[in-house]
Amino acid sequence: MEQMIQKQVTVNGSWITVDVYGDADKDAIVLIPGAMSDATAWRHVARHLDGRQTVAVVNRRGRHPSGPLTDAYSLATEVKDAAAALKEFAGVRALFGWSYGGLIALHLANEVAVPHLIAYEPIMAPFGAQALPDLRHAHEEADLDGTVEVALRRVTGMSEESVEALRSDEAVWNGLLRLASPVYAETLAINEAGHQNTLATMAERIDLVVGELNRGRAPYGTSFDDVASRTPTAVVHELSGQGHLAHLEAPEHLAALVNRLLDSTA
């Protein structure tokens, strides 16, 4: 699925872009990335999804070429943005969210009917709460390098050696810096959203996916378990050999699982 066009959608006080692979006039599977990620990072997954599908990847606000977060930003803002993206298509066959994008998708499916929702390691409060003071300080100082450091070490739990290995790769580190600006506001939004007893109440089918390497382990596996406890009708799947970054490290493997889930409802 090589052809890609980009749509721009006006949203509350800002705009988002949507990368569309396939026929923009057909029913779509819509992908919502999470924090420190953008639509470009999901291009390999999109291109390995079933060729019969139209795949739309939302480039959420706060990352180029989408618009700014705005001062009124919250999880509710993201839900409204995602709803606006869905309206760009004749129909939506499935909604897929990763990490924070999974939380957005689950909240959207409390408000909008969704035929099939797939979420890969969705997170929820209190994810990253312990790092908020340090993230706020880095944000107020416009210190992108500090934001990345805090996000990797204090939010994801990455070791100092692993962080330094990323820093030593200039291209990788610059890519992280490019996506760092919204991290404080996004982490705050996750935690200010609080808890809902049930998620995705208007989804006809829910599939939750956790990477084998994270199952039952903090921070992603334990947050995943919190989400799963609030989606009692969901079926849980495990992606073998993978952690949180399967879309970058094994995009064909992740796409194959999503294709199987889609085919099982065809």
Summarize the structure.
This protein has 266 residues and is an alpha/beta fold.
Characteristic terms for this protein:
Alpha/beta fold hydrolase, eight-stranded mixed beta sheet, 8 strands, 11 helices, 266 residues, single chain, alpha/beta, Rossmann fold, 2 domains
- Across the major sheet, the strand order is 1-2-4-3-5-6-7-8
Low-confidence stretches: none
SS-derived structural category: alpha/beta
Instruction: Classify the fold: give the CATH topology of the largest domain.
Output: Rossmann fold
As for the number of domains, it is: 2
CATH superfamily of the largest domain: Alpha/Beta hydrolase fold, catalytic domain
Q: How far do the termini sit from each other?
A: 19 Å
Number of helical regions = 11
Q: Beta-strand level of the residues, as a percent range?
A: 15-25%
CATH architecture grouping of the largest domain:
3-Layer(aba) Sandwich
> Can you tell me the overall shape?
globular
> Sheet with the most strands?
8 strands, mixed
Helix content: 25-40%
CATH class of the largest domain: Alpha Beta
Mean pLDDT across every amino acid position: 95
How would you portray this structure in words?
By secondary structure, the protein is an alpha/beta fold. It has two domains: 4-124 and 195-263, Rossmann fold, CATH 3.40.50.1820; 126-192, no CATH class. It is 38% helix and 18% strand. It is built from eleven helices and eight strands. The protein has helices spanning 43-48, 75-86, 100-108, 132-140, 144-155, 160-167, 170-178, 183-192, 220-229, 246-249, 251-263, and strands at residues 4-11, 14-21, 28-32, 54-59, 92-98, 117-120, 206-211, 235-239. The chain has an eight-stranded mixed beta sheet with strand order 1-2-4-3-5-6-7-8, sandwiched between helices. Helix 3 (100-108) links the parallel strand 5 (92-98) and strand 6 (117-120). It starts with a strand and ends with a helix. The mean pLDDT is 95.
